[in-house]
């Protein structure tokens, strides 16, 4: 089950000045977070921090884990293919097979061959 996470740009998040955080206290900040799930705290109208609800933080972490799992799966496939190729080079007869290939004529059929996929 893939988790899709839509995050707004920092410019689009609700803002509260640092002075309001001091004045309204934690309850005021939590009310602002309750409306959108996060709030940008500004100092002289410049973003200084983003405060997230625990739910928003959890959603971000789950999305990162999901993305990391997909990358790990692709990396595992590449690692397996590399290990298979490496194993064939480490076989006892690998040197003899390579010398045999190098001694024989190249059979390209009039085409240039570069790499395994061309």
TrEMBL record:
Q: Which InterPro entries match?
A: YefM-like_sf
Q: Which family does it belong to?
A: Belongs to the phD/YefM antitoxin family.
Q: Which NCBIfam families match?
A: phd_fam
Name of this protein: Type II toxin-antitoxin system Phd/YefM family antitoxin
Organism, as annotated: Lysobacter cavernae
């Amino acid at each position: 089950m893939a988790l899709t996470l839509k995050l707004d740009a920092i410019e689009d998040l609700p803002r509260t000045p640092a002075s309001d955080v001091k004045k309204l206290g934690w309850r005021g900040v939590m009310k602002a977070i309750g409306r959108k799930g996060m709030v940008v705290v500004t100092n002289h109208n410049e973003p200084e921090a983003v405060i997230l609800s625990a739910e928003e933080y959890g959603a971000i972490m789950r999305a990162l884990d999901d993305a990391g799992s997909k990358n790990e799966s692709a990396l595992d496939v590449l690692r397996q293919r590399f290990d298979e190729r490496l194993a064939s080079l480490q076989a006892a007869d690998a040197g003899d097979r390579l010398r045999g290939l190098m001694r024989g004529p190249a059979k390209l059929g009039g085409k240039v061959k570069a790499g395994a996929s061309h």
